[in-house]
Amino acid sequence: KMDDDDDIPQLSSHTLAALQEFYLEQQQREGMKTSQGFNQYSIGSIEEDWQLSQFWYSDETASCLAKEAVLAAGKGGRIACVSAPSVYQKLKEQDGADFSVCILEYDRRFSVYGEEFIFYDYNHPLDLPENLLPHSFDIVIADPPYLSEECLQKTAETIKYLTKGKILLCTGAVMEEQAAKHLGVKMCKFIPKHSRNLANEFRCYVNYASGLD
Asked: 43-47, 70-74, 148-152: which has the minimum mean pLDDT?
């Protein structure tokens, strides 16, 4: 009789040890989060999920974009973050701030943010809750998950529906023409950075006089 174990691929002891170490680290990280009265709004509190094409901004970039959004929205302004959770998290760090913010995001892990979270799939750009009124946000910050014209075009429908006028778009430098075509936005001097370096050059685009030049 053949030994049943023969056709089961065996992991080398080295790989096994590495895996165990990885899981242990993960558990410790999760444990740390709960024990430190963990700040659920800080960047990295939700790990990047590359399968969803998620890449968080560096802390400086997220702060800079959040600051710009607050200035652009004005006192008591409303800000929408479309697929830009790290900017949302930075905005939430500002206690007692005089603005309100919503996060439109495909990743349901962000539902920990309660009523401010709106499930969003760019394939259905106007499939939004009824209480999200058209042109009810002073500024929309958007970072379409994919560098494709289709993704930009569909996200643009959402942006145009939500904004009273101001748009801050973050996407690849290669999307400059499409961004102008679909949203009438121009590239800023400010260069956004990510916590991990991306292969594609990334840029910011706006359709108003911003502080990003």
From this structure: 43-47
